[in-house]
Design goal:
single chain; 439 residues; alpha/beta; Rossmann fold; 2 domains; 14 helices; globular
């Protein structure tokens, strides 16, 4: 198949799209391409996930099981654990984790293993795209040599590009298909083919000059958020010491129609992007002899927030003549942000472990997360406790870590003995203000 034939197959929706990694990025991406008329293959190493998908059962809240069953019935999608199935795909999109290791350096194990797997089955004229957030140079320096080991050459025999995922679970105003898609190819041919593929499914494609530019753009997006969240978190700690309500300060500053964008404090950073991605850039900077002190400071401030919340919780309990050791504490919200079921890097996980380390008896409630599952750093083996007046009254403290809209905060304050609120979720609660501590 020539470049022209591949472009024609994309335009006619005859190219099968293979997606490696059926998680919070891969599954919405599959839905987007299926909606655009493509057939998709989902590859995942987790056999349990594959079994659920092929049974039409979604494990992600905003991807409906009914939608999956319809795709399976129409033969538009299936999941597999067999990498040989990728040989029949015209495009292969890599949506795999890029975590940090114990020294907070990039852990490229998933990217390397996936690239090696694809290399074993790589076919002429296939398009390979990395979507995982990573450091500038990954596609060119790491993935290209792996894919070329068996003799096929990028830009000549196959196409290679980078297009960063921009998923934000829980958003109502944007979807995968309407968020502009940055696309950078290894060369002009790869750029053209990759832009054509995404342009067939996504409203707006933003071509850039290279893979490196596309990789850097994603890192910059998340560094921007990390630094600004760190600024507001540090300001929050200062304003607490000064007896000033940081939430009122942000609301007042937000009335300025220019020059200010509000960010809000919290118990720490969550999700797969902001707590991790800036460190990919700091690692890359060290490789060229530079120190990114500003970014590293932001990461340090944000990493301190869970400890700060625990200290504030201990202070609140002390004022109620209760030591944190032996106190019963209910953490409200396990997901990293409200109204979703995504617990990746959630600060709630660290809060629970820190509370337990201080001797507290800890439970959690989350309407979106009925039970915990094993993650890379955590295996809490906990289930969500029912939320009613009797159970609330049994806890010495209720710690609001995630401000789900499902919670009735005035009711919670009314029945709880003490509330530590990290999200300003109780701002509209008029009764029981003396019970509330903002942390």
């Amino acid at each position: 198949m020539s470049e022209k034939q591949l472009l024609d197959a994309i335009a006619q929706r005859k190219t099968k799209v293979g997606i490696v990694g059926m998680g919070y990025v891969g599954l919405p991406l599959m839905r987007t391409f299926c909606d655009a008329g493509f057939k998709c293959l989902g590859l995942d190493v987790d056999a349990a996930k594959v079994e659920k998908l092929n049974a039409g059962k979604s494990y992600i809240k905003h991807i409906g099981s009914g939608f999956l069953k319809q795709l399976l019935k129409q033969g538009q999608f299936r999941a597999t654990v067999n990498p040989r199935d990728l040989r029949r795909c015209g495009a292969i999109l890599m949506c795999v984790p890029t975590p940090l290791n114990e020294t907070r350096d990039p852990d490229m194990t998933y990217v390397v293993n996936t690239s090696e797997m694809i290399a074993r089955h790589l076919q002429p004229d296939q398009l390979i795209v990395l979507e995982s957030t990573t450091y500038p140079g990954t596609t060119r320096e790491l993935i290209q040599p792996i894919l070329e080991r068996n003799g096929l050459k990028a830009e000549k025999d196959f196409y290679l590009a980078y297009s960063p995922e921009r998923e934000d679970p829980g958003r109502k105003d944007f979807t995968t298909s309407t968020i502009p898609k940055v696309v950078g190819g290894l060369g002009p041919k790869s750029s053209k083919v990759a832009a054509a593929l995404y342009g067939a499914a996504i409203t707006r494609v933003v071509p850039v000059d290279s893979c490196d530019v596309a990789e850097a753009s994603k890192i910059l997006e998340n560094v921007y958020r990390c630094v600004n969240i760190a600024l507001i978190n540090e300001t929050k700690v200062l304003f607490d010491r000064l007896g000033i309500n940081v939430w009122e300060v942000v609301a007042a500053a937000s009335t300025k129609p220019f020059g200010f964008q509000p960010f809000y404090p919290g118990p720490g950073l969550g999700g797969h992007c902001i707590p991790i991605d800036p460190f990919y850039l700091t690692w890359k900077a060290r490789g060229v002899g530079l120190s990114t002190r500003f970014i590293e400071l932001a990461g340090e401030i944000n990493r301190r927030m869970p400890g700060y919340v625990i200290d504030r919780t201990a202070e609140a309990l002390n004022r109620a003549r209760k030591p944190i050791n032996g106190s019963k504490i209910l953490v409200l919200g396990l997901a990293y942000k409200k109204n979703i079921d995504d617990c990746r890097e959630s600060p709630s996980l660290e809060l629970i472990e820190l509370l337990k380390a201080r001797g507290a008896e800890v439970d959690y409630n989350d309407p979106y997360v009925p039970r915990t599952h094993k993650m890379r750093e955590y295996d809490l083996k906990m289930s969500s406790k029912p939320l009613n007046a009797r159970t609330l009254a049994a806890y010495d403290c209720v710690l609001i870590a995630t401000d789900h809209d499902d919670y009735d905060y005035p009711w919670i304050v009314r029945h709880a003995k003490l509330v530590v609120d990290t999200r300003n979720a109780t701002a509209k609660c008029k009764a029981g203000r003396k019970k509330i501590v903002l942390a």
